[in-house]
Amino acid sequence: MNLALFDLDNTLIAGDSDVEWPKFLIKRGILDATHHARHNDYFYAQYQAGTLDIYEFLDFQLEPLSRFSRAELDALHADYMDGHILPIIPRKARELLAAHQANGDQIVIVTATNRFITGPIARELGVTELIAVELEEQADGRYSGKPSGTPSFKEGKITRLNEWLAARGQTLASYEQSFFYSDSRNDLPLLSIVSHPVAVDPDDVLRAHAQTHGWPVISLRS
Fold first, then answer.
1. Which domain holds residue 204?
2. Scanning 13, 104, 205, 214, which has its CA 20 to 30 A from the CA of 142?
3. Catalytic one among 7, 183, 201, 203?
4. Is 36 helix (H, G, I), strand (E, B) or coil?
């Protein structure tokens, strides 16, 4: 069996679910547009530059989740999926996942976005294994607005992948071939340890690195 790892945002979906979620909340009047846009642009510029402080970002991004019960969040997420996510899932992304499934490969989405946002997206894509930023829960089941454990970002994706593999009694070497599909320079650590790194609609830094090292560069959007 082979291992097929996929980034989510700007890879399997033609956009960023962590950006689309606050856009949705702003439309609902839950977040202030001016305040949130200013901070979100600040963090997104850091992400694109490869300088994001993940803990500072998560404090900002997760706080709105603490305002609602889990039932309220689930209802909001259903509308968010319909209006913001389903329209940006490319046909080619579904076809690529289907090809790996048909080959009998173990598929895992490995994302720096939190599990609340990404869990339903993974299910929509037919992927059961998800490594995402985990959320701290309070005694009543509500989210605290804080992350739990190691964020699956940059080298943290390797840490979390190794934890996932260890729980299955495996290592990366347990698989004959390992693939990782990503768009971002932030994923170079994980891309560099799999046997088949693939740049998907990559940013400029990843594109240049892929071309230098002979990695495939593909598009799931065209």
1. 3-218
2. 13
3. 7
4. helix
